[in-house]
Amino acid sequence: MRHRVRGRRLNRSSSHRRALSRNLVSALFRHGRVVTTAPKAKEYRGMAEKLITLAKEHNLHRVRRAVQMLGDKDAVRILFEEIAPSMKDRPGGYTRIVRLPTPRLGDKGQRVLFELVNYVPKASGEQAEQVGEEAEAAS
User: Fold this and answer.
1) What is the pLDDT of residues 37-96, one digit of tens each?
2) Count of alpha carbons within 13 Å of 25, Cβ hemisphere only?
3) If I label 108, which of 13, 100, 130, 139 is the partner at 20 to 30 A Cα–Cα?
4) What is the DSSP string of the chain?
């Protein structure tokens, strides 16, 4: 019986789960959306939501707590400077999980789109312009 046993093991050791959580949530903050499996998204949604709530008030103590949880200073900077201000008036529910129609090719695992609620993807034309500008600047 699993009485009072919390969390999913995800067939990983505890250190591997901790690394997975840090990497998945930092990628979510950097890119706005991540394609992953349903159990992983459900497990680490709570961590992402807690970090966004933590970042709503910007002070040194909260920044240090976020760095301690994530271990990625760039993702913490994005969290405090971009994500938290855009979620200021929202009382919770900062992430969404959308099931994708096609399963993963290797093992038929259920894929999901784990994304921030206010995520707006860039149009393909804007990305092409940015790549062109970067190429011109490099030459």
Assistant:
1) 999 999 999 999 999 999 999 999 999 999 999 999 999 999 999 999 999 999 999 999
2) 28
3) 13
4) --TT--S--TT--HHHHHHHHHHHHHHHHHHSEEEEEHHHHHHHHHHHHHHHHHHTS--HHHHHHHHHHH--HHHHHHIIIIIHHHTTT--S--EEEEE-SSPPTTT---EEEEEETT--PPPHHHHHHHHHHHHHHH-
Distance CA 52, CA 31 (A): 15
Q: What are the backbone dihedrals phi and psi of residue 98, each rounded to the nearest 5 degrees, phi first?
A: -115, 125
For residues 37 and 104, the answer to whether their CB atoms sit within 8 Å is: yes
Can you give the pTM of this predicted structure? Answer: 0.84
Give per-residue pLDDT as tens, 71-84. Answer: 999 999 999 999 99
pLDDT of residue 81: 94
Tokens of 23: 């990497």
| Spatial distance between the Cα atoms of 55 and 125, rounded to a whole number of angstroms | 32
pLDDT, mean over the chain: 90
Q: What is the pLDDT of residue 108?
A: 94
Token digits of residue 86: 């855009």
Beta bridge partners of 35: 113
